[in-house]
């Protein structure tokens, strides 16, 4: 691994998430009927922060959930490493809700494809909108984000590393060259 | 920690970490059965074969439900209508199932060690659903899962296993699993139902149920298998109930929140009273529900392990 470049620091991440929250409220004309579901692991923490920002702005609680997409992956049969199956926690009805799906990095789009399949098994939301902290390009499926924290043009040789306080003890986004 | 074994043959062969991995994975799978659409595509395109040489309803159905909730295709073979009756050997049957390109064989057999033999002879996964008096790993895993869910931990617990230990693969698997995770196990039964040499596994043995219940955090009550062996001596049913049956009177002197388990089917009035079976300490039906999650986890892990090897 070569030198890492910091793309976002703690303050930037805070501002970006606040902006995304504002955009979500603007697009959906308020916080009513919204719920925020994060993809495990780091998407969950970003989802909780977005929900906290929405509460700060609109003064209302927004339901948040956690989605594990392992069982819906299209590479389960090929995966060389073994994915750990973690818990999905969506303890509210998603029918007719405007659902904000949250992940840390949008890359090939395959995770989001799996997440959409999983969500449809839970019900029929009114809409599903996608919010990501970082969009690094290189899509392999026709998927785009509705809310993007930062667009980072990358090469496939690079990796984007997201660290969050809740899981890693610090807030930062780094870009690194793979060897 | 990744799962590397293509088979699940018994808890004797698992490390504490591997047992914990199954339990943790099962915890994630439990949620699937609470959904309106109780199905995930994880094993789509895989074929699981239930190969049962002994009659079984609950275990077979539990495995079938688990496999179907993972989107696997399930085929049930019961020996009564199979070519086994025409003299086919176990290994030949296994190789034929493998040649059908099935991915997992779930086998119940009346001979101890049958699953081990089959697993050695085949490249596909073998899951032991009970072999003779040897092991019944998924039953013990679901017992331990239920206990962990109820009490929050296994290490340091005192678990009593009561009843027909000698003829019980459930007891053997539970002893392996519980002791590996750091629980103290006491076996409680008439002397004739305690297998010789079992104390080498680190368990205590008692024939005084009231004494054992005083300090037990949980009691796993085994079924008296009167149908299994007509030639060995068995205690008289009423006499057994008087000396070892779990009753409300006995439970009143135990720890207030003692967990009462039973692998089913229950002989009411022989191993335990109806009041206990249906009472507040009983988790017998939760065990059935948890059995699905545990078996989903096992089927998922063994199929993933095989993929990782290729």
Structure, explained:
The complex is a heterodimer of chains A (179) and B (310). Chain A is of the alpha/beta class and 179 residues long. Chain A has four helices and eight strands, in the order βαβαββαβββαβ. In chain A, strand 2 (34-39), helix 2 (42-58) and strand 3 (63-67) form a beta-alpha-beta unit. In chain A, helix 1 (10-28) crosses helix 2. Chain A is globular and about 45 Å long. Chain B has 310 residues and is an alpha/beta fold. Chain B folds into two domains: 11-136 and 289-309, Aspartate/ornithine carbamoyltransferase (Rossmann fold, 3-Layer(aba) Sandwich), CATH 3.40.50; 137-287, Rossmann fold. Chain B has helices at residues 16-30, 58-69, 90-99, 114-121, 137-151, 169-180, 209-215, 237-244, 248-252, 274-277, 284-309; strands spanning 47-52, 73-78, 104-109, 125-131, 158-162, 184-188, 204-206, 218-221, 259-261. A five-stranded parallel beta sheet of chain B has the order 7-6-5-8-9, sandwiched between helices. Chains A and B meet through loops of A and helix 1 and helix 11 of B.
Short summary of the structure?
The complex is a heterodimer of chains A (179) and B (310). By secondary structure, chain A is of the alpha/beta class.
Features:
heterodimer, A: 179 residues, alpha/beta, Rossmann fold, five-stranded parallel β-sheet, three-stranded antiparallel β-sheet, 4 helices, 28% helix, B: 310 residues, four-stranded parallel β-sheet, 11 helices, 9 strands, globular
